[in-house]
Amino acid sequence: GFLNDVFDQATGLRVVIHEPNRYPNVEHFGMNVESGKMTELAYTPTLWNRSNTPVNPCILSGESFKDLGREFWYTQRECTNKHIQDQVMARCNCIIGLPGFPRPKTPSIALPYCASFTRAYNKTFDDFLNQLNCYVGVLESLTEANCLPRCILTEYETKPSVTYWGATDWQVYWSGKFVNDIEDLSSLIQDRDERAKPLPELRERFGAVKSRLMRYLTQENLTTVGDADGQVEDMVESKNFAYVVLKRKSENLVLKEEKQVLTLNALMSQIGGLCSLTIGLTCAFVVEIVEFFYIYTTRAASKQPASAAGGPADCST
């Protein structure tokens, strides 16, 4: 019973490179990043251009969907999973929480996760079993969803490179503090520009961010961590952090395009070649057949008036 816990006890990140505004398929294309190491991800984009044929149809764009309030563009996998999610929500009154299943509504007590039976969602173990059986019944009676693959999509061939990251605890601490303060300062500047008249609370927030930045810039010894009153703060451990570098190998783009191999001209050429090799049919033979039927019909038509003129006469008294 403890095997699942043993396999899930991993420290680090799972990273995936995906198209902008597309739902990330972390389960199938994600890569594990070890904490305490520097991982460089070098990728090469590959553009797929499929042909829309009657046998294998595809679409350029489809209906977008939402997952916990965020909108994503169409993908075939998420379209199929959304079809399953809608039927489970309608019939089982719960939401599938597995990766890759869009959640159009936020889980609540009225509409909880199917795999949850905690007090937070006011569910018991019997409710969990009933919803599990309902979920299995939906999968057994599931109707096929009209979800076609995309004609144009981009994949990223990624090659990871891992090395030792020798950052110390105080470096990680101050890096996080500095980055957070810069992000707060950028958001405050944006809020100030959007308002015609700055509010007093913005000035207070500006002052707080300024004091934190000045503390970082004027600190004599950054190896010790202390707050504004001189009290020592808890220092984070650098081994619990991961350094990820995302880099494109080159500006080149790999294009993989499907083309129609058997065109109409190629089809006629192959039919003519096979007929000439197997039963001796050629274009000249077709012309001779047409000529034969033409001569036959013209001669038959010319004999009919001659037969009528040389027939027996009608005698009358």
Q: List low-confidence stretches.
A: none
Order of helices and strands: HEHEEEEHHEHHEEHH
Mean pLDDT: 79
- What's the count of strands? 8
**Helicity level:** 40-55%
The N- to C-terminal Cα distance equals: 123 Å
What is the beta-strand fraction?
15-25%
Rg measurement, Å = 37 Å
Number of helices: 8
Instruction: Decide which structural class fits the backbone.
Output: alpha/beta
> How many separate domains?
3
Shape verdict? elongated
Task: Give the biggest beta sheet.
Answer: 4 strands, mixed
Describe the fold and architecture.
The chain has 317 residues and is an alpha/beta fold. The chain has three domains: 9-152, no CATH class; 167-238; 265-294, no CATH class. It has eight helices and eight strands, in the order αβαββββααβααββαα. The strands form three sheets. Strands 3, 6, 7 and 8 form a four-stranded mixed sheet that branches. Helix 3 crosses helix 4 and helix 5 packs antiparallel against helix 6 (200-218). The longest helix has 27 residues, at 283-309. It is elongated, with a radius of gyration of 37 Å.
